[in-house]
Amino acid sequence: MPTYFTSSPGKVILFGEHAVVYGKVATAGSLGLRSYALVQTREDKKIEVNLPNVQLARSWNINDVPRQARWEGYPYPPQSMNTDLLDQLTKFVDLGNQTNRSQAAIALLYLHSFLTTDETLALGYDFVVRSNLPVGAGLGSSASYSVCVATALLQLNGYLSAGTGLDVAAQRDLVNQWAFQAERVIHGNPSGIDNTVSTLGGAVMFKKGEKIEPLPGFQSLRFLLTNTRVPRETQVQVANVRKLHDKFPTVVNPMLDAINEISNSCKDIFSQDGLDRSHLLTRFGELVDVNHGLLAALGVSHPSLEKVREISSKLGLKSKLTGAGGGGCALTLIRDDVTPETVAVVKQLLEAEGFQCMETSVGGPGAGILTLTHPTTIAEFLAHDKTYFDTTQNWTYFV
Ligand SMILES: Nc1ncnc2c1ncn2[C@@H]1O[C@H](COP(=O)(O)OP(=O)(O)O)[C@@H](O)[C@H]1O
Ligand SMILES: C[C@@](O)(CCOP(=O)(O)O)CC(=O)O
Ligand SMILES: [Mg+2]
């Protein structure tokens, strides 16, 4: 059987994180930073897993992994999670309180339990993921990982092959739905925005259960991303907002509604005829400020994120936290009139705080697959230069 690479991007949420979990609109785009997976069958009935970003290397006998019997709605995932299976897999991987490793392994094996065919079961497979995204920093590394897992297992087990009769849109939807299940394992209660942006690419306005709306014009915006390097887990931040919401629903709900209106205002700005670019960017920056204020009021800012805002505002730039907050990344809007010297100064000041600055493209392609003509070893895959996957390969995207 062939060897496959799969790949998918991280994301940046411009407006609407957290509120999107409550059914509000959010605005997000895919990043140039991506994760890459290798999947290929073996002959010794083992699953050989290597996840260097979370320092996990494990090998399991494929027949020891719990499996899920054929379910209603096959091959689309069931609506609710199989919590018994999750418990079994938690015991099986036995990684205790090593949350990041454990969640990554369980997410993979959860999808494996549903999707592995008898043919793959008779062989075993290698599964490796490496990522250029910071893990646990608000740029959707979990979703990017989840989309790589879903694409790889669906492709390996033949669910995306021509014989299934699924067109590209249906294949993309299948990948997105399975990636959402993996995100559920990692996050608990994800909105689905991260896996959707990672699968589709581009820039979108997203509302749970509704048709995804592309956001044209967004690609022309420039952002500086700053990783405060303060670790946090999305699951914990989402749970904290939930506690506040349940304690003070009449206070928190209007805040979530206000965040909803930020994305709507963003769309209005972009669709307003005759609004010149400099006014557009000024208004956009004002919305960045308002959204951050509301997120801070929801309790998901952090002194390090406030530091990013303080430093950038001294140079006239607007910043907000992005993703779940509590640490992780902030985004700073770079208006067209901001000089390269100003960007260099702001970066220098932020880096002096121990933060990491990244300038990356936004709105690029979503999930992709590459079929290799020759098998590769795990060591070869891991040894490739960071830029190898994008510069030397012909990827097929779900478009
Ligand atoms: N490259 C990767 N390899 C394995 N697991 C990953 C990878 N990237 C992310 N993860 C999983 O996602 C978790 C981080 O998810 P999360 O807290 O949502 O942060 P993020 O904002 O980066 O999505 C990690 O603890 C790990 O379980
Ligand atoms: C906070 C939230 O809106 C985004 C989380 O993004 P990230 O995992 O921090 O990259 C949660 C969600 O939408 O599921
Ligand atoms: Mg995440």
TrEMBL record:
The listed locations are:
Cytoplasm
Q: Name one GO biological process term.
A: ergosterol biosynthetic process
Q: Which InterPro entries match?
A: GHMP_kinase_C_dom, GHMP_kinase_C_sf, GHMP_kinase_N_dom, GHMP_knse_ATP-bd_CS, Mev_gal_kin, Ribosomal_Su5_D2-typ_SF, Ribsml_uS5_D2-typ_fold_subgr
Name the SUPFAM superfamilies on file: GHMP Kinase, C-terminal domain, Ribosomal protein S5 domain 2-like
Domain annotation GHMP kinase C-terminal: ranges: 281-343
Q: Residue limits of the GHMP kinase N-terminal domain?
A: 121-202
- Specify the signal sequence span: none
Pathway assignment reads: Isoprenoid biosynthesis; isopentenyl diphosphate biosynthesis via mevalonate pathway; isopentenyl diphosphate from (R)-mevalonate: step 1/3
Q: Does the keyword Lipid biosynthesis apply?
A: yes
Keyword hit for Cytoplasm: yes
EC top class, in one word? transferase
Q: Name the UniProt key words of this record, in alphabetical order.
A: ATP-binding, Cytoplasm, Kinase, Lipid biosynthesis, Lipid metabolism, Magnesium, Metal-binding, Nucleotide-binding, Steroid biosynthesis, Steroid metabolism, Sterol biosynthesis, Sterol metabolism, Transferase
Q: Which GO MF terms are attached to this record?
A: ATP binding; metal ion binding; mevalonate kinase activity
**UniProt main location, coarse:** cytoplasm
**Single GO cellular component term:** cytosol
Q: What is its EC number?
A: 2.7.1.36
What catalytic activity does the UniProt entry give for this protein?
(R)-mevalonate + ATP = (R)-5-phosphomevalonate + ADP + H(+)
Could you tell me which NCBIfam families the record lists for this protein? mevalon_kin
Describe the family membership recorded for this protein in Swiss-Prot or TrEMBL.
Belongs to the GHMP kinase family. Mevalonate kinase subfamily.
Q: What does this protein do?
A: Mevalonate kinase; part of the second module of ergosterol biosynthesis pathway that includes the middle steps of the pathway. The second module is carried out in the vacuole and involves the formation of farnesyl diphosphate, which is also an important intermediate in the biosynthesis of ubiquinone, dolichol, heme and prenylated proteins.
Q: Per its record, how is this protein called by name? A: Mevalonate kinase
Organism from which the protein derives: Linnemannia hyalina
